[in-house]
Amino acid sequence: MVTRTFGRAAAAAFSLLAAAGCATLPDTDALIERHAGQAARFENASGPLSAQRNATVLAELKRKSGDIDILEKQIALEQAIVGSPLILGNKVTLLQDGAATYAAMFAAIRAARDHINLETYIIEDDEIGRQFADLLLERQGRGVQVNVIYDSVGGLRTPKAFFERLTEGGIEVLEFNPVNPLATKTPWLINNRDHRKLIVVDGRTAFIGGINISSVYSSGSAARRTGNPADHNVAWRDTDLQLEGPVVGELQKLFMATWEKQRGKPLAAKNYFPALKPQGSEIVRAIGSTPDDPYSLIYLTLISAIGNAEKQVYLTNAYFVPDPQLLKSLTDAAGRGVDVRLILPSHSDSAMVFHAGRSHYSGLLEGGVKLYERLGALLHSKTAVIDGVWSTVGSTNLDWRSFLDNDEINAVVLGREFGQKMSDMFAADLAASRGIDPERWERRPLSFRIKEWMARVWERLL
């Protein structure tokens, strides 16, 4: 999106001021080894399960999933690394693209009776943004407390009048890490952006994924974003989840933690943590990552899942600027016979990111990784499905900025049934993609190589 392009440029420029003090990614092998060997643990709506019940749940999960070893190894490792529980009894709905996602969000917002917590990177003053604003103001006027967090860089192109209208209607609005240092209530951290997309309604229903609040997801107006007339009727391809059940409480905690960290006004007294009953059969872990963490929890979780893969690693991602450890994990998996496939954009709203990602194609192809570029849409999804049983959907891109500089949020869903839905979605995107042939790629024009080299120089800042 143009705000992303502008925001990347602004954040990159500011980050040069602090380049000497940049964070670095962890030694993933050492961390994974340190945390290996624990027993898997689960929770339900009533709290942690007994050791016997844990063993029963794990055995049943493995049975239904074809006794895939990744489950036991990955569950234990995640709980040691992440800390958030793996929760039973959830309903998870896979939402593809803006129209379906916004329809589900609007339905949940209209049904709200207590509160709505919304956290987003971008909320635009366009048709979709105004629909959200109108609905939120209507609910606020009926006694439903609405609390909104938006990112300052993501909101640079949104008129202040848009947010003032929300505030005047009684909605609590919080700007995350203001670009203006005089407006911040916390240390000025221009490079730390809130890239999360999260809505929690009444503490019972939540939405997360890659979809911002913008008409580009529903109107095919990518040309306004990319400046490319050929994109005039190209839709945006993205993925979200709707979650109901006990895991919503974990997502609510992440919203509340961000509000507190940003020193927002004390929230109105509402029932933010209602008693939650099982709503389905899905096992879900909510994972939030921030630069305050010693290392990116989402990054390390993904690296370990790829390392534990036995059969397939299927990744779909909009912004691919991998670090050496991610590259190694992908080629190592391919080297041991795992079917590693990545669906990446065929064009992007960020040319620098696009070419930086392409600069790694040769090494990946040589390592046995299969690469595809999505046609007919501007790809914005951030999803993974591994061995058909470990799935994740969220806001996290496969780039340094998501791993080191942004607040991000993902959900991990375990099990064959949901994994099949993810695999079917991947197959549909694959059918709409072109494969990158290694021999043809090595004959690409010199102009491509120059752009890749130039973008590669700046990849840490992208």
Explain what you see.
The protein is α/β, with parallel strands linked by helices. 41% of the residues lie in helices and 23% in strands. It contains 18 helices and 22 strands. The model is unreliable at 1-21 and 219-232 (pLDDT under 50).
Model regions low in confidence, pLDDT < 50 over at least 5 residues? 1-21, 219-232
In percent, how much strand structure appears in the residues? 15-25%
Total strands: the figure is 22
Instruction: Tell me, briefly, the overall form.
Output: globular
Largest sheet geometry = 16 strands, mixed
- The amount of helix comes to 40-55%
Q: Kindly report the average pLDDT value.
A: 90
* Cα distance spanning the termini: 14 Å
Q: Helices and strands: which structural class?
A: alpha/beta
Number of helices: 18
| Rg, Cα atoms, Å | 21 Å
Offer a concise description of the structure:
The chain has 462 residues and is α/β, with parallel strands linked by helices. The chain contains 18 helices and 22 strands.
Strand and helix map with partners:
Layout: H1 2-16, H2 28-35, E1 43-44, E2 47-48, H3 51-64, H4 70-82, E3 86-96, H5 97-110, E4 115-120, H6 127-141, E5 145-151, H7 160-168, E6 172-176, E7 193-194, E8 198-201, E9 205-209, H8 216-219, H9 222-226, E10 235-237, E11 239-244, H10 248-261, E12 282-289, H11 297-308, E13 312-317, E14 320-321, H12 324-335, E15 339-345, H13 351-358, H14 361-366, E16 370-374, E17 377-379, E18 382-386, E19 390-394, E20 398-399, H15 400-405, E21 406-414, H16 416-431, E22 433-435, H17 438-442, H18 446-457
Helix pairs in contact: 4-11, 13-18
